[in-house]
Amino acid sequence: MPPSGVQAVRGEVDPATMAVPAKLNPAHAVREIDNVWIPLPDGARLSARLWLPPEAESQPVPAVVEVSPYRHEDNTRRRDSVRHPYFAERGYASLRVDIRGSGASDGVLQDEYSEQEQEDVCSALAWVAAQPWSTGSVGMIGLSWGGFAALQAAARRPPELKAIVVVCASADRYGADVKYRGGSVLGCELLPWSSTMLAMSVRPPDPVVVGEGWREAWLERLEQATPFAEAWLAHQRRDAYWRSGSPCEDYARIDCPVYAVGGWADPYRQAVLDLLERLDCPRKGLIGPWSHQYPEEGTPGPAIDFRRECVRWWDQWLKGEDTGIMDEASLRVWMQEGLPPRRDHRPRRGRWVEEESWPSPRVAVSFYSCGDGTLGQRKERRKALAIRASQTVGSAAGTWCPWGVAELPGDQRREDDLSLCFTSEPLEERLEILGSPVVALELASDRPLALVAVRLCDVSPAGASTLVARGLLNLCHRSSSEDPRPLDPGRRETVRIPLDAAAYAFRPGHRLRFAVSPTYWPWAWPSPEPVTLTVFAGGATRLELPVRPPCDGDATLRPFAPAPEQTGSNGVSSRTVSHDRRSGLRRIVLDRLRDHRRVRADGLEVDGAQKDVFTVTEGDPLSAAVECERRLQMRRGRWAIRVETRSTMTADREAFRLVNLVEAYENGDRIFSRERAFDVPRDLV
Length: 685
Fold this sequence. Notes:
The protein is an alpha+beta fold. The protein is built from eleven helices and 33 strands. The longest helix has 15 residues, at 115-129. The radius of gyration is 25 Å and the shape is globular.
């Protein structure tokens, strides 16, 4: 059902006149047009869902656009109905557009953030600006892929685009996305996300929307489907492939106002601080106690009604009204209160704090030197400390992009026991950090190919170890990801590993700890040989913490409105870890079940499931393997389709191997099945 005050209009509508049947035109109601076709210069069309405020018939209004490949006609329908009608009720035409090759839009989706996709987005913005119901001022909002798309569009400077809101996204396709971290292959996410997009991209367009050509379009998608992971693994260095669509290559290209939003449980949170620091345009940042979600749905929470902040942003930049939003501090974050690790549904304890600018002159770096397992602020004696790779380190890491609290990191004590740890004395005073910690390591490796994982933890008086931040570095990328170089075994090197951004309060009596390991499976794909790292304490090895002093103004901040009540969910998940003591096999299973739900009044129902299995045997890094299964279904009456994909990723000393199977079923009969294998040489990983 459409939200209160929204009049749903089914079927196609003339986009120029927006003519609809008179009986569906009540006064003072937002109009929801279920499908609008946006023409592209090459003759293709993009499918969009449009909400129009009542005054748009006689008085043009600004527009807000969200683009993604996630299918507005079914997959994101519930999420879209939370914010787009809200914007329309407040005087904005609001559109949810599916990119080429997704949903009912024409074409085939074969990679992300292509040049064609970016050109299509700019063409869509120009079309929106030219409509009779539009003033020509357009804003963009987007979560994840949609956030990337907004930043990419802003870097192209289309004249219609006046401001953007970017949620859980990044300006760096190589170093701050699902493929690589510090030059390490993200085993936990590269194949799983590729598998998800493979299944999404081979779903058919809805016959009710596109008509008789739906099956032909579906078969075209099945025949031309290409797993994204093939291109990603073909470019293991930072090269022209990654620079395309990465606004971080030239931040100055972005000159429209940017509101960047993230969550402390989201992998893209660092981008908020990077954008505030590197952009020269008007900008604001917000980081809350959320995972990869809009703040209205943020877990573990507390969630907020971020839609109100968006309207203030749009009113400021699309309508030219002084809302006071730019008179406020440039950065607001949720300062997390230090607590033992837990995986329940209670909101995260903490408080909102602000900094007038970022980087903030109030935040100062404190240096902690390392001794023989110790961490302190006095000079320590030099000592060589060795750590041998254990393939089971990383089992308590949680998922890279958690769906919910079940996927958050667990107690780190077991991980700490298998790592080289440096631990402080109990803190005498409360210590709050805000920013990106850095660990400098003076080290040597006994192998030419090696990686290092570093974790910052909060150790309670009872011994519980809570993960605060972490970082990865493929040591071959210690100087450059464009031109990586192997290590000279035994030679000392000093490297700096930036950790995730954090806002965290260490309580009195707790201890700081950072832990070092040459493995972190399944986050980092293992080096081809077992590695022993030697860390030289007492010299250049140290922890650098961004310490934020207390501020009296924190207690008087304007509160956010509480999140709106919502019904339904995207699904449930579970994560299990098992270990066979006899064989040494460690198995991590991530199950995610998408709810069966009716998504449209015409009877369309969807559901799905995905399963990721990560295995490795202790002492054998070449045993690492990832297996992914996806199943997505659509049903309406007697019509039913299902797509299934199965993907695997393994490696030997020389190469990675991908195998992908795609199968499609119509009314129970298999109509398509194809398996493809792809081998690519390992490039210093």
